[in-house]
User: Fold this.
Amino acid sequence: MNEQPRPQEQAWNECLKVIKDNVTPQSFKTWFEPIKPVKLDGKILTIQVPSQFFYEWLEEHYVGLLQKTLKKVIGPSAKLEYNVIVENGQQGNSPYTVNQPSGNTSRPVSNELGMPIQLGTSIKNPFIIPGLKKMNIDSQLNAKYTFDNFVEGECNKLARSAGLAVAQKPGGTAFNPLMIFGGCGLGKTHLAHAIGNMVKQVHRAKVVLFVSSEKFMNQFIDSSRNNSTADFVNFYQYIDVLIVDDVQFFAKKERTQEIFFQIFNHLHQNGKQIVLTCDRPPKDLKDVDERLLSRFKWGLSCDLSMPDYETRLAILENKMYQDGITIDREVVEYLAHNIDTNVRELEGALISVLAQASLTRKQIDLPLAKQMMKNFVKNASREISIDYIQKLVCEFYGIPVEAVKSKTRKREIVQARQIAMYFSKDLTKASLKNIGMHFGGRDHSTVIHACQTVNDLMDTDKKFRYDVDEIEKRIKINTF
Ligand code: ADP
Ligand code: MG
Assistant:
């Protein structure tokens, strides 16, 4: 079984040893391991490369190294020739190869069929950042979105840990593509950037790109206008970790879907990582090609939902910590209680309160927060009614609402009745007489007495005070 390596293999293996010492391990893996030596004819070594893009890349970046290495291994008159595999655009036709000399990438050459192929012009980066080298593609990542400041909760556990796994081992997990979906303002974009940022940290050599689906589409349209779609595709096929935000915008954009399908396939086949975000689950995506949809479902889809109260609190605290702000705990709790639409609004509410306080030079306290929230939350400022107070107090003590309206003088009932009266006086505009009417037609002096008793007990009885505070919190959730 110990076959002698053929001369071209022997020569190429020698070359690889030299090259390995001169390039990064990642570049070596990407650009030199896939090369196959096919022929050594005198001093001419022919190597096969998987695509035209590959050939151009080698010529542009490594031609000096290759030539020096060849001269060292084969001799001063060594020459390099490429055997380039060319995909045949027409379906059913298999790829063919063309031979290219080294050191001249800009002349038209013909393939085996005698058709001219335009080679050479370097691939344009659709992000057009002047002075940018291809190896230095700007990832378009926002450094402020990280895993560290993405607060974990039940609402995002799976998505967050899948994101971490993907960032540690891009392309090396079953989560490919990783599809993160969820409503607006729930952290999809944050998580997507966090993945990209972590990849850059852990795998410096990996080429990461974050792009919104709209930008992708616009670049594609531009490229078709400029007849540079091949460059566009090549650019994207070169990415190791491609993150596309808000893929729901691909709906109805058939040509964009087609080109994305092509890029997706190429990346996926080559073990590259794809991360997608979407404002709805893939099954609810309308007007997206079935083939593309089925690919979206290949890896892992996980959703982000609205954080629960504790997580909302932690998100606010995390944000305040980052920004070096301190605010009374009761204000933070109030915001966390009342904003349950999405995280963006939660953050927005915090910012509004801060802005208002600094504009008016006021202390950030509960009344200010309440005032602000009136403008913030739709159908805010729901009036608190006596009925509502009775209902919550009775729920708290596990007694029927009728009990507080009855004549009963049982101790627990009397206490619940007094607390309900106290809140009716404190939180509604109802007159003492009116309050009395709601409690089985009692007179105003009974209501006054109830309020006094509750105040006294709150001063002297810790447990009682705790209960009253808790009831107040419950009454105030969703009301102002
Ligand atoms: P989406 O892309 O889903 O519309 P974003 O990623 O833009 O939402 O998130 C909206 C805001 O909420 C951002 O400022 C983001 O940092 C913040 N956010 C969302 N989820 C979290 C979280 N779990 N921890 C910290 N901040 C979060
Ligand atoms: Mg977003």
Summary: Residues 188-189, 245 surround magnesium ion (ligand 2) (CB under 6 Å). The first strand starts at residue 36 and ends at 41. The longest helix spans residues 343-360.
